[in-house]
């Protein structure tokens, strides 16, 4: 199962870390700037209940690098969605399910 989380803020980063820790999926995250650099260099760091876990996740700045996915999780702020639609399109295929997690 191929899953991409589009957006690496608090919501997207948390979900991607939890999915990566759970395993059993081909997981990617689309990020930009400092978030992308940190994920590629150090993984996603999740601190919960005083325990720290580092999740290694394939991170890309462009959806074209990842190809068609089974699931795409949109973890963008609502005002960021419309400008990002063209960038999300390469992830979508005939059977791709899109899940929104927005604030």
Structural descriptors:
single chain; 103 residues; alpha/beta; Rossmann fold; five-stranded parallel β-sheet; two-stranded antiparallel ribbon
Reconstruct the topology from this structure:
Layout: E1 2-6, H1 10-22, E2 26-30, H2 33-42, E3 44-48, E4 51-55, E5 58-60, E6 71-74, H3 78-88, E7 97-100
Parallel strand pairs: 1-2, 1-6, 2-5, 6-7
Antiparallel strand pairs: 3-4
Measure the end-to-end span. 26 Å
In the CATH hierarchy, what is the superfamily?
NAD(P)-binding Rossmann-like Domain
User: Which residue ranges are poorly predicted, with pLDDT under 50 across at least 5 consecutive positions?
Assistant: none
**CATH architecture identity:** 3-Layer(aba) Sandwich
Average pLDDT figure: 94
Percentage of helical residues?
25-40%
Provide the CATH top-level class: Alpha Beta
CATH fold-level assignment:
Rossmann fold
Give a summary of the structure in a few sentences:
The protein is 33% helix and 30% strand. The protein is of the alpha/beta class. The chain has a single domain (2-100), classed as Rossmann fold.
What does this protein structure show overall?
It is built from three helices and seven strands, in the order βαβαββββαβ. The chain is an alpha/beta fold and 103 residues long. It has a single domain, classed as NAD(P)-binding Rossmann-like Domain (Rossmann fold). Strands 5-2-1-6-7 form a five-stranded parallel β-sheet. A two-stranded antiparallel sheet has the order 3-4. The longest helix has 13 residues, at 10-22. It is globular, with a radius of gyration of 13 Å. The termini are far apart. The mean pLDDT is 94.
């Amino acid at each position: 199962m191929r899953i991409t989380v589009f957006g690496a803020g608090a919501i997207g980063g948390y979900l991607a870390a939890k999915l990566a820790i759970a395993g059993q999926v081909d997981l990617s995250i689309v990020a930009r700037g400092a978030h992308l650099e940190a994920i590629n260099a150090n993984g996603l760091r999740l601190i919960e209940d005083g325990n720290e876990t580092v999740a290694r996740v394939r991170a890309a700045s462009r959806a074209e690098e990842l190809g068609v996915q089974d699931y795409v999780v949109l973890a963008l702020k609502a005002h960021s969605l419309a400008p990002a639609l063209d960038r999300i399109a390469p992830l979508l295929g005939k059977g791709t399910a899109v899940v929104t997690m927005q604030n």
